């Protein structure tokens, strides 16, 4: 589900080989306060979201994708995924969630901002934040002040 969204919808020249995290989700994401969740409808994955523990009570939101047929306020797949991630992060004692995204994901920018993420400069990211090559916009959600 992720590769077609990246490659076909947004014309991002990325391959599975460029994303080794997708080939080893348990070892890459599922440790510390991190995890990887999917939304499944009738046995089909329609959405994904992950949290990468970068230490110090800080995390990176990664791999948030929703299949085109399941996007929008009516279905609320993205909102449910994000709400679950934030709830789980709070239970784990996470203080901050950071994310990087591409300038092409305009709807994602509006979505993150609507849910309390603040646009920040790249220089404001924690040193351990894994900046991806395509990332040009960065956001921060301080959980203590979040109302997601």
Describe this structure in words.
The chain is α+β, with helices and mostly antiparallel strands. It has one domain: Aminopeptidase (3-Layer(aba) Sandwich), CATH 3.40.630. The protein is built from four helices and six strands, in the order ααβββαβαββ. The protein is globular, with a radius of gyration of 14 Å.
Question: Would you spell out the secondary-structure blueprint of this structure?
Answer:
Elements: H1 2-9, H2 25-29, E1 35-41, E2 44-55, E3 58-66, H3 77-91, E4 96-101, H4 106-114, E5 118-120, E6 137-142
Parallel strand pairs: 3-4
Antiparallel strand pairs: 1-2, 2-3, 4-6, 5-6
Tags for this model:
4 helices; alpha+beta; 29% strand; 6-stranded mixed β-sheet
Quick check: average pLDDT? 92
Structural class: alpha+beta
Number of strands: 6
Separate helix tally: 4
What sequence of helices (H) and strands (E) makes up the elements? HHEEEHEHEE
Helix fraction bin:
25-40%
Radius of gyration: 14 Å
Query: How many structural domains?
Result: 1
Classify the fold: give the CATH topology.
Aminopeptidase
| CATH class group | Alpha Beta
Q: Strand count, sense and closure of the main sheet?
A: 6 strands, mixed
Low-confidence stretches: none
Which CATH-level-2 architecture? 3-Layer(aba) Sandwich
How far do the termini sit from each other? Answer: 26 Å
Classified in CATH, the superfamily is Gcn5-related N-acetyltransferase (GNAT)
**Range of strand content:** 25-35%
